Amino acid sequence: MYKRKLSVEDKIYAVNLYLEGKESQRRIASMFDVSIASVQQWIRNYESMGADAFTLKGNKKYSKELKQQAVLDYLAGRGSQDDICKKYAIRSKAKLQIWIKKYNGHEDLKSSGTGGTVIMTKGRKTTFEERVEIVRYCIAHDRNYAETAEQYRVSYQQARSYTVKYEAGGVEALRDNRGKRKSPDEMSELEKLRAEVKILKAEKERAEMEASFLKKLEDIERRRG
User: Fold this and answer.
1) 53: Cβ–Cβ under 8 A, 6 or more apart, which residues?
2) pLDDT per residue over 83-113, tens digit each?
């Protein structure tokens, strides 16, 4: 059983074992100590992009048009998620699922990256209440920092920084205490609790929506199968 990091050659060898009918997906997953889903992704990507599928570095860029066409093809029943990913050289089914979720939620499917949106690079001063709202919105919208920055007229860096700070230290981390000693206007426990509840509610709603959506996709896949 493989414990080291798998090379490009390992993955190609594994895919060929399956394509040549020598081993099952389950057996290959066991041999290389990976999940069956990983093996399926290797096979799908190899059939779609060849060996290049394992040598591409960084995140692959997808145009708005490709995303929309892939989603529409899937919703029209022109293939399973695997089929659509193979047809459009989409490296991960998770990406397709996100695009379908956004499309069904009437969100704009922008090109990978910022989609041409003008992002503020210069930050502005924000209040504690604004930072709480920014984090709540960002979490509710799948941690889309570019969209959050545009919505609240802050920089991309601010949107990301506030969210990361919250996830690391809770609402207290959103207080701007630089160079300040404790003062009478320091956040009370009630204020802290209200802010925490606001963000946690967004997290809970996002998680429930995600679980519900994935369940619907699984049901559709089962019916098509």
Assistant:
1) 42, 45, 46, 91
2) 888 888 887 788 888 888 777 766 666 665 4
